[in-house]
Amino acid sequence: MRFGQLIGFFALVISLYILWQIRQIILLVFAAIVFATVLNQMVQFFQKFRLKRGLAVAISVVIVIFILVGFFALS
How far apart are CA 54 and CA 49, in angstroms? Predict the structure, then answer.
């Protein structure tokens, strides 16, 4: 194995180790992005009915909270 390949291998191993250590943060960021995308789609749906964005956001958040409460109440 050449010196350049050895450096590349160690860089890969160190990078994988760092990613493994911050996996919870990466998962949290991914979940936040998915949640924001879903919420934005709901807001855009309500804006089609000529609601202001602030009101559409409030309605969307209330709906999501009701869904979560209902889900946890059933389980």
Answer: 13
Structure tokens at 48: 């089609």
- Per DSSP, the residues of 12-65 read HHHHHHHHHHTHHHHHHHHHHHHHHHHHHHHHHHHHTTT--HHHHHHHHHHHHH
Domain residue limits at 54: 40-75
Residue 7 lies in a domain: no
pLDDT at 9 exceeding the cut of 90 = yes
Count how many domains the chain has. 1
Cβ-proximal residues to 59 (8 Å cutoff; 6+ apart), any chain: 46, 51
* Share of residues in the chain with pLDDT > 70 (%): 100
Task: Answer whether residue 67 is part of any domain.
Answer: yes
pLDDT at 75 over 90: no
Cα separation of 8 and 34, whole Å? 33
